[in-house]
Amino acid sequence: MYLKKLEMFGFKTFPDRTVLEFADKRGITAIVGPNGCGKSNIIDAFRWVMGEQSIKLLRGSLQEEVIFAGTEERKPVSLAEVFLTIDNSDHRLPVDYSEVEVGRRFYRTGESEYLINKEVVRLRDVQELLMDTGIGKGSYAIIGQGQVVSILHSKPEDRRKLFEEAAGIHKYKSRKHATQLKLEAAEQNLFRLSDIRAEIHQQLGPLEEQARTANEYQVLKKDLAGLEIGLFKVKLGKLDFFRQEVEQKIAEYKKVVEEADAGAQNIAAKKQEFRDKIVELDKQLQACDSQLQDWRRQRAESANKSDVAKERIGNHRQRLQTVEQEIAQLEANQTALLARQNEAQVELGAVEKSVAELNERLAKKNEETGAIVGRWQQVNQEIADLKKALADFLDQVENKKSKLLGLTSGETVVAGDLQRVETSLTDFALEQEELANRKGELLERKTFVDNSVNDLHARRDELFKQRSQKEDERKTRLNLRIEIKEKFDQQSSRLKLLEEMQQTHEGFQKGVRSVFQARKDDAPGFAGIAGVVADIITVPKQYEAAVEAALENNLQAIVAEDRATVEQVIRHLREHSLGRATFMAGGLLKNAVRVAPPRGICAVDVVSCAEKYQEFITGLLGTVCIVDDLEQALGLSEQIEPSGLTAVVTLAGEVLTAKGLLTGGSVGKEQESASLLSRQREIIELQKDIEQYTGELAALDTEIKNIEQLFGQIENELKEHANKLKHLEIEQGTIANDLARIEIDSGKLEKNIASSRQEITQQQSEMERIAGQKQNLQAELDELNKQREEKEKIIAEKENALQQADNEKTAVNELLTEIKINSTNALASKRQVELKLESYRDNIQQTAAQLAEKNTEKETLRQSIAEAENILQSTQNVLPEIEGKIEQTQTELNTANQERARYFHDLEVYDRLEKERNDADREVRAKLSEEEIKMARVEAEHDEMLRRMANEYNLTIEDALKSEAVVEDYEKTQDEVEKLKRRIKRMEPVNLLAIEEYEAQKERLAFIENQCEDLEKSKADLLSIIKELDCTALEAFKETFHLVNEHFKQIFTSLFNGGSAELQILDNNNILESGIEILARVPGAKKTQSMSLLSGGQNALTAVALLFSLLSARPGPFCILDEIDAALDDPNIGRVTELLKEYAEKTQIIIITHRQAMMSVAEVLFGLTMEQKGVSKVVSLELPGKEKALVEA
User: Fold this and answer.
1) Residue 1088 — φ and ψ, nearest 5°?
2) Nearest-5° Cα angle at 740, 734 to 745
3) According to the model, what pLDDT value does residue 955 have?
4) How far apart are CA 173 and CA 994, in angstroms?
5) How far is CA 881 from CA 300, 471, 868, 872, in A?
6) Beta bridge mates, 931
7) CATH 3.40.50.300 occupies which residues in the chain?
8) Which residue pairs, CB below 8 angstroms and at least 24 apart, start in 977-980?
9) 750-776 burial, b if ≥16 CB within 10 A, otherwise e?
10) Sign of the alpha-carbon torsion through 913, 915, 919, 921
11) Which of 95, 471, 940, 969 has its C-alpha lying 20 to 30 A from 1147's C-alpha?
């Protein structure tokens, strides 16, 4: 299955018919275009045509906003329609078409249509067609702007819907919802039918008695009319004999049923004992489980301490290795420096030796010069002496100048070094001051941040506590509200039923109902009907049974204003065959007296009514006495008639008449609940209860709303605190790093400053020494210059004579000068070597200091490792003891479970025993029912005989006398006739319609009971269906969740180049309703982080990983993604595009994007533009190596 075509007309910014054709069922299609050109409207079109009802999700506020509203240049259109064509070759959609077109049309008038293959259907049909195909409502087939990250930040319960769509269980949940609605309807109908059945039971009692009286009356009448018919007498005798046999069997079966009931009670008591044991064991299991959790928590804490100790040991050992390497490096540096120092010492010796050799050589050359001067003395002693003196003098001058030049050069070098070192020292001092200022600022900021963090932690703990309290309060209020709402619903349902029964006069005789229906229909002559006796009187609850027994059928007596109204109503009933009714009206009632009873209370005294009806009620109840119990009633049996009373009734409803007739026994619960007198009282009580519950619900709703508002405020404050804590903790880390760097830099600066100060002292001493030497040499040069001028004057005079001597002297002087220069250079080299030696000595001292510092750190690390190893050893010693406790607790838990299972087994044994007894009881009850049916048939045959005598034979007394029936004893028969006449006279008046009404109510009761049985069966079937649906959905959800979780772990690690992630079900006890949590640990993090702590790009990558995990577990036919790359940088986009290419091999993917990297993987490109303001148009795009989409609006 894949998308073939999307066609839009009049939808949002597409006023013209626009068609997008998707060529291939696999691959990637990209929709590109500038912002505001209507790209997201295409996504909205997909959502809308597939049945989306939320206009907010369609980025609107009114439904009509989906219709093109017009522009300055274009008129608005009258409708919007979108058609989506889907290839269904694989029949993934549950229809017999290889191509399915889903359409939706909305008119500006507000009318809407849904279409499937051009046929108008319901929204539900579209939703069921797409359900569980991967493109249904709430699926991951369409991901709009911002939805990628919103998936992560949505509630866990809302996030579950994606997994339900992936698991394909929406259809199960939909069927379950429909089944639950049917179940609720069945329960409501069953409740209503139960009340009606109770009402019928209440009527059947009096009707049965009246019918029995009428039957007896008719039998007597028929006996009187056809006593002479011998055959009838024979048959009646046979029927009586058969009835006795049936009654005997009924009595036997009833005895068996009573014994079975007693046995059932014993079994029930035993089962309750087992259940109590199981409850006790459950409490014990809960205690053991709690203890087990404590031991496991202690084990986890010890293991955590052990892990921390191991980590500390590892870190310290790693640092120790680093320190040892640094020590080795420093020792190597120290060895190298000592070697260089020795080399410099050797070099110094060599330089000193060279200086000595040059001085010796100079002395030799001076001796040679003296020899030359001696030879010159032979030529001209005077010239030679002068030349010699001049040469000696010049030697001194040159020597002084060379020394002065060397000192000046050395002074320049030393001065440059001194200036350089002083500049460095100044820079070091400034840098040290800046570091100190920076450190002070950081320490001050650190104090502030630490205090802020502590304050935030304290406030957060307080907020957590407040949130927990509010959540508990909310749960308490919600539970209380549910309880009250259940009571409210029950009472409302009961009130509605009673009011309906009161309005329809349910439970009244046919004639009474006919009268009130006629009054309701405004029939002429019915305006004077006030009501029935049961409606006009009010009786305290404790006297209801007594008054109802005293009034019997008179409760249904109709109260009229006058006699004319009664006559009019009776004519109406007779003319329309609407049954019979009893009436009370002014002018009809006689002898309305109140008799003071010798004991008890007069019945009329406990009844309240309007003044105008008091005479009626006195006439009905003035001669009736109410006593507490049957014993008191029997005690008054001799005083009833003499005192003027007609009857004595007890509070339980037993009646003793003046003629000695005693009526009593049990009344069924159905008849009790359907009492005519209690109905009005119950309505009033229910109205009061409902009013009270309404007030309580309103108060609870207000409290819950206030609590939820406070809860929301706490949540917002917690989020704000979390953000603040995040930033402050980051700042803490930054400050700590900055302080550490400052400490390192300060240490380096202190060493550099000390070294610079020492070097300055040395350079200053050297400058002072050079200055002193220069001053002495300059004084000597000044004196020699004066002498030179005198000698040069003498030499000038003798220049010609000394020319030859000068030439020779010059040669010698040049040689001497060379030796002197070499000697000066050797002295300079000596000084440089001495300075180098001094530098090596300083470096050796610094290295020694660093070695001492590193050795101290090394010892500290070894001590820390030892302490951590001690902690590790202690935790490892505790763990076995905890494990033993856990094992012991688990053993106790297992023992309790075994004992609990044993009680469950015993309970099952008694369940089977109970079932066997129930089966046997049902069999006996079935036989009892058969005998009762036989009895009913006997009664029916008896009644049929009476009916036939009157209707079929139409025999009168005279006809009976003329019959050929054989009478053996005439006198005896005559006496029997007289007796029958007296009996018939005493029985009159008799309600002969009671027989018909009794049978009708019996038939109605049978129908109602059949309906109840059908509803009970239907209810059981619906519950079974719900259970089966839950099991199927649960298995599908668990399997899909496992697959998605595995894919999510793999894809997350691939996208992040490391890290880990997983999905977690929050409530394993209720998986189908549980939320789903996302846990993620990005590379570099030590533990899993909340989604709110991840960056935008990390959130987007995590959401993309979840989306493709769902696609991997259950590939949808297509997937539409709207700018999911908005929060991703280029490297992450590269990873996402690789995923897109991989999944495009098995799923049709449509993306909306601005990014070139995303466009580059698309095989088909649709470009959107808005050449005319407010009107979107699809244009063709051509890119090298890409297929061209040629779609014109």
Assistant:
1) -65, 150
2) 125
3) 53
4) 53
5) 13, 38, 21, 15
6) none
7) 1-138+1155-1193
8) 977/224, 977/227, 980/220, 980/223, 980/224, 980/227
9) eebbebbeebbebbeebbeebeebbee
10) positive
11) 95
Q: Which class is 508-666 in CATH?
A: mainly alpha
Low-confidence ranges of the chain (pLDDT < 50): 228, 231, 669-674, 956-958, 960-961, 970, 1182-1183, 1185-1193
Q: How far apart are the first and last CA of the chain?
A: 26
- Residue pair 49/84 in contact (Cβ under 8 Å)? The answer is yes
Residue 1117 near residue 1, CB atoms below 8 Å: yes
Distance CA 727, CA 120 (A): 58
For residue 317, give both structure tokens.
């050992």
Is 39 annotated as belonging to a binding site?
yes
Which residue shows structure tokens 């007198």?
A: 677
How many C-beta atoms lie closer than 10 Å to residue 833's C-beta? 20
Strand partners, 537: 609
Residue 971 to residue 975: CA distance in whole angstroms: 6
Measured CA to CA, the distance from residue 847 to residue 831 in angstroms comes to 25
- Whose structure tokens read 């004639």? 511
List the one residue out of 119, 116, 123, 157 whose CA is nearest residue 137. 123
206 is known to lie in a ligand binding site: no
894 annotated binding-site participant:
no
User: In 3-state terms, what secondary structure has residue 1167?
Assistant: strand
Q: Which one-letter amino acid corresponds to residue 123?
A: L
Question: Which tokens is 1148 given?
Answer: 């049709």
Buried b (16+ CB within 10 A) or exposed e, 1043-1077: bbbebbbebbeebbeebebebebeeeeebbebebe
pLDDT at 601: 92
Strands (E), 1101-1147: 1118-1122
34 is in an annotated binding site: yes
Q: What is the dihedral of CA 1124, 1128, 1133, 1136, to 10 degrees?
A: -50
Confidence (pLDDT) at 10: 92
**Range(s) within the chain of domains with CATH label 1.20.1060.20:** 508-666
Cis peptide before 989 (omega within 30 of 0): yes
Among all chains, which residue has been given the structure tokens 């002068």? 386
Torsion of CA 434, 437, 439, 441, to 10 degrees: -130
Q: CA quadruple 304, 308, 310, 314: dihedral positive or negative?
A: positive
CATH fold for the domain made of 1-138+1155-1193 = Rossmann fold (3.40.50)
Burial class (CB in 10 A: 0-12, 13-18, 19+), 675: buried
CA distance 1180 to 1082: 42
β-bridge mates for residue 655, sequence order: 649, 663
pLDDT digits (tens, 9 = 90+) for 697-737: 888 888 888 888 887 888 888 878 777 877 787 777 788 87
Q: By C-alpha distance, which of 869, 903, 781, 684 is closest to 398?
A: 781
The pLDDT assigned to 245 comes to: 78
Beta bridge partners of 1175: 1172
For 454, the 3-state DSSP assignment is: helix
Among residues 559, 545, 538, 534, the alpha carbon closest in space to that of 608 is found at 538
> In sequence order, which residues have a C-beta less than 8 Å from that of residue 592 and are 6 or more positions away?
615, 616, 618, 619, 622
Which residue type is seen at 769?
Answer: R
Nearest CA among 466, 469, 457, 462 for reference residue 721: 457
Beta-carbon count within 10 A of 1017 CB: 11
- 499 burial (CB, 10 Å; 0-12 / 13-18 / 19+) is middle
**Strand order through the sheet with 99-107:** 18-21, 2-9, 79-87, 99-107, 112-116, 119-121
At CA 233, angle to CA 232 and CA 235, rounded to 5? 65
C-beta separation of 421 from 755 below 8 A = no
CA 1088, CA 1081: separation in Å to the nearest integer?
4
